User: What shape does this take?
Amino acid sequence: MPTIITAKDNNKVKYTKSLLKTKNRNKESKFIIEGYRILTLAIECKASLDYVFINEDFENKEEHLKFLDTLKTNNIKIYKTTNKIFNELIDTENTQGILGVVNFKQRSIEEYLKDEHKFVLILDRIQDPGNMGTIIRTADAAGVDAIIALKGCVDIYNPKVIRSTMGSIFDMNIIHATQEEALRILKLKNFDIVSSYLNTNNYYNTVEYNYKTALVIGNEANGINDELVSKSDMLVKIPIYGNAESLNAAISSAILMYEIKKYLV
Assistant: This one.
């Protein structure tokens, strides 16, 4: 049976609520996931699920009761609280009545970028949570080996990012690194740095890519910073046939990832 919590000043409630802030997520190496579907994906992907909160209504569905049995089988602690308290622990308005707290490990580039990796995505100051989540999901689909999130990117454990990944947050190898160390390690491992850049004559589908490629996607408003541009081995762009100035960062990354992947399979 779930442990019942009805006091909003309960320590477990206060601790969970604190994880809505980036600084506390980083300090505790934990983040919140919301919703029945993403919780089921977390179990399937063997994510390090610490504990779960449910509201008063969650046990009203048979499939939810079966899921709670799965959690118990996996020795995951379940807390039940009032709808009012539960709503203070989540980022969404339309809740499914369940959230989970997941442990994550801070990943260094030296530890997690392997010699056998051939395809890396570098994100330079991606700010929009929806873009970040969609890029992570697309990278998962396109077979990217690792994502390097440089300083200035939105927190990948932001609840909006997590929702946009549709579960790919559990599958992708995501690394935080400074630009300097990322470039140093990638060059040591013989990666070509390929940057998406508007002011070039190289169209993305008219060039050949190295067997080890690191694709750089820049900030939604300002693109890639000047130092990254200067240290790139190749600059490529996607043609614009209409009147739009540019493509959304997530859309651009998807087109480029799938083109590059053709050379790496």
